[in-house]
Design goal:
The chain contains 8 helices and 2 strands; from the N terminus they run H-H-H-H-H-E-E-H-H-H. By secondary structure, the protein is mainly α. It has a two-stranded antiparallel ribbon. Strand 1 and strand 2 form a beta hairpin. Helix 3 crosses helix 4. The radius of gyration is 19 Å and the shape is elongated.
Length: 172
C-alpha cells in the first residue's frame, strides 16, 4: 500500500525540480520551512549566547508578557491557550529565571508576571539575532527580493496584526 503522506512530501521535494506551477500545498510547507529554519537558527545562536533553555514556545510567551507584564489570564488569551497552560509556562520560565511573579499594584488579589533581566536579555539578543538572520537572507536572495517578500507577506497577513497564539494553534 502506498503511503499518501510520504507520496505528497516527495512531490513537494520533487516539485522544486519542475518547471510547471507548483501544487497549492507547497506554499504553506515552504513558508513553514522558512519560518522553521529561522527559528532553529535563532535558538542555536541563543544557546551559544547563554540562553540554552529558551524554546520557541517560551519566546512567544515572553513576547506575550511584554515589558509591561501580564497576568496568566492575559497571557492565555494572547497565546490562545488556557490560563492553566499559561501558568505552567510561567512556572517553567520562572524556574529558568526569565520571569517573576509580583503583586498587581491595581489589584492585590492578582499576580502579574514580569520579565526579569534574563528575560529581557533573551528578547534583546533575539532581536539582534533576527537582524543577522535577515542579513543572511539578503545575502542569499538580495535586498530587493527580501523586501518584496516582506511586502507581499504583509499584504497577505491578516489586517489585525501579528498573533502570538502559534503554540495554541498547533495544539500545544
Amino acid at each position: 500500500m502506498v503511503n499518501v503522506v510520504d507520496e505528497k512530501v516527495n512531490q513537494v521535494v520533487e516539485s522544486g525540480k519542475r518547471d510547471s506551477d507548483p501544487p497549492g500545498f507547497e506554499l504553506p510547507l515552504l513558508l513553514f520551512a522558512g519560518f522553521r529554519s529561522i527559528i532553529d537558527r535563532l535558538h542555536a545562536e541563543l544557546a551559544e549566547q547563554g540562553h540554552p533553555d529558551v524554546r520557541p514556545a517560551y519566546g512567544f510567551a515572553l513576547q506575550a508578557i511584554g515589558l509591561g507584564g501580564a497576568t496568566a489570564s492575559e497571557m492565555g488569551r494572547r497565546l490562545g491557550v488556557s490560563k492553566q497552560a499559561a501558568g505552567k509556562t510561567v512556572d517553567k520560565l520562572a524556574q529558568l529565571g526569565y520571569v517573576e511573579r509580583a503583586d498587581d499594584p491595581a489589584d492585590a488579589r492578582r499576580k502579574v508576571v514580569r520579565l526579569t533581566g534574563r528575560g529581557i536579555d533573551s528578547l534583546r539578543r533575539s532581536a539582534a539575532i533576527f537582524e543577522e538572520l535577515r542579513k543572511d537572507w539578503v545575502g542569499a536572495l538580495g535586498e530587493d527580493r527580501v523586501r518584496a517578500l516582506e511586502t507581499d507577506l504583509r499584504v497577505m497577513a491578516p489586517a489585525d496584526g501579528f498573533r502570538l497564539d502559534v503554540a495554541g494553534w498547533f495544539g500545544g
